[in-house]
């Protein structure tokens, strides 16, 4: 049975709510997996009262346990005692620190072989900064703590798969960061990672940067000077890649099955496509780690935290993806 670490995310956000809703919504999760929440039981118990859930929540200090969990029983693993329960709905230092500690602990236990995959609830960058955490986001934490230099984000939405060449980058800096060799390496990694999740002969499309793919230099020349040469080089290396294909059509074509995945050039280019197709059903997979990490693709939503207003669809889909693809 696969063990899935479910990190609580920022305790002041919607993480506790969507985790409880997801874990109690589908008994099928427990047929092939044992989800273990990395977070303090007291935080989940507070949220359970708000949701009026009659679920047993048990705090544990060791993962040396029998596979006896059921949908009526949620296990919470925490390394250290909780001195106080952070206030819901507000950015604060304690929540930032706790969210990081849950992630660090989950990585440690997964690397040690006690866990098969990690599924993460959302964290808040401001809270991390207040806590003095030296990482901007989940991906940086996982990469650093596992010594993984070639991580990539893969979005899965229905049958649309999107990789990202760059991540959190100012829009004005995107064109300058495009590099032929970097794109070729990314396409090679995309092929490897798709095979890892069961796609044997992947076809990958490279998204264009400029409107209509630049119109042969009329709206920009990055397609001719960087993107097309990268595709041609990748093809010489035996990869089945196509493009650059205008961004206003490539995601639709991939969703219809022409391509197995799209390599998006920047954050919003791919995020908009995935979230428009299915905002709550989009799942993020971090590839290139020693293990699989899945995540919701939304934020902490402090404005509705703790109010029984959060949609848990993405959390449930992220859990299902962790169970399905974990190796």
The radius of gyration is 20 Å
Which structural class matches the secondary elements?
Answer: alpha/beta
* Strands in their spatial order, largest beta sheet: 3-4-2-1-5-12-11-6-7-10-8-9
Percent in helix: 25-40%
Mind telling me which CATH architecture of the largest domain this is? 3-Layer(aba) Sandwich
* Inertia-based shape: elongated
Instruction: Describe the main β-sheet briefly.
Output: 12 strands, mixed
End-to-end separation: 11 Å
Q: What string gives the helices and strands in order?
A: EHHEHEEHEHHEEHHEHEHEHEEH
Q: Strand tally, please?
A: 12
Oligomeric state of this protein? single chain
Percentage of β-strand residues: 15-25%
Task: List unreliable stretches of 5+ residues.
Answer: none
The count of helical stretches stands at 12
CATH secondary-structure class of the largest domain: Alpha Beta
Give the name of the CATH superfamily of the largest domain. Isopropylmalate Dehydrogenase
Quick structural overview:
With 327 residues, the chain is α/β, with parallel strands linked by helices.
Please, could you describe this protein's structure?
It is a single chain. The protein has about 325 residues and is an alpha/beta fold. It has two domains: about 1-150 and about 285-325, Isopropylmalate Dehydrogenase (3-Layer(aba) Sandwich), CATH 3.40.718.10; about 160-275, Isopropylmalate Dehydrogenase (3-Layer(aba) Sandwich), CATH 3.40.718. Helices cover about 40% and strands about 20% of the residues. It has helices at about 15-25, 30, 40-50, 95-110, 125-130, 140-145, 175, 180-195, 220-235, 245-255, 265-275, 315-325, and strands spanning about 1-5, 35-40, 55-60, 75, 115-120, 150-155, 160-165, 205, 240-245, 260-265, 285, 290-295. α4 packs parallel to α6 (about 140-145) and α8 crosses α9 (about 220-235). The longest helix is centred in the N-terminal third of the chain and has 19 residues, at about 95-110. The model has no long low-confidence stretch (mean pLDDT about 95).
């Amino acid at each position: 049975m696969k063990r899935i670490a479910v990190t609580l995310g920022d305790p002041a956000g919607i993480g506790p709510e969507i985790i409880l809703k997801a874990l109690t919504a589908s008994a099928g999760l427990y047929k092939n997996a044992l989800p273990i929440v990395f977070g303090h039981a007291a935080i989940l118990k507070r949220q359970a009262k708000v949701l009026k859930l009659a679920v047993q929540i048990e705090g544990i200090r060791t993962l040396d346990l029998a596979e006896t969990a059921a949908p009526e029983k949620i296990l919470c693993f925490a390394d250290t005692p909780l001195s106080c329960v952070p206030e819901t709905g507000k950015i604060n230092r304690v929540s930032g620190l706790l969210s990081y500690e849950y992630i660090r602990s989950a990585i440690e236990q997964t690397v040690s072989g006690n866990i098969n995959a990690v599924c993460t609830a959302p964290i808040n960058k401001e809270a991390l900064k207040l806590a003095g955490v030296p990482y901007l986001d989940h991906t940086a934490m996982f990469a650093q703590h596992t010594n993984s230099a070639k991580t990539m984000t893969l979005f899965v939405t229905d049958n649309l798969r999107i990789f990202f060449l760059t991540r959190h980058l100012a829009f004005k800096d995107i064109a300058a960061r495009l590099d032929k060799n970097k794109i070729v390496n990314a396409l090679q990694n995309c092929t490897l990672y798709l095979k890892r999740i069961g796609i044997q002969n992947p076809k990958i499309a490279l998204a264009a940067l400029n409107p209509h793919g630049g119109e042969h230099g009329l709206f920009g020349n990055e397609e001719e000077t960087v993107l097309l040469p990268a595709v041609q080089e990748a093809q010489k290396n035996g990869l089945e890649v196509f493009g650059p294909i205008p961004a206003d059509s490539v995601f639709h074509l991939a969703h219809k099955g022409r391509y197995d995945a799209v390599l998006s050039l920047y954050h919003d280019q791919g995020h908009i496509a995935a979230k428009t197709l299915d905002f709550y059903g989009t799942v993020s997979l971090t590839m290139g780690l020693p293990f699989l990490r899945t995540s919701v693709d939304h934020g902490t939503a402090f404005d509705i935290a703790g109010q029984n207003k959060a949609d848990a669809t993405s959390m449930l889909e992220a859990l299902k993806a962790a169970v399905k693809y974990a190796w």
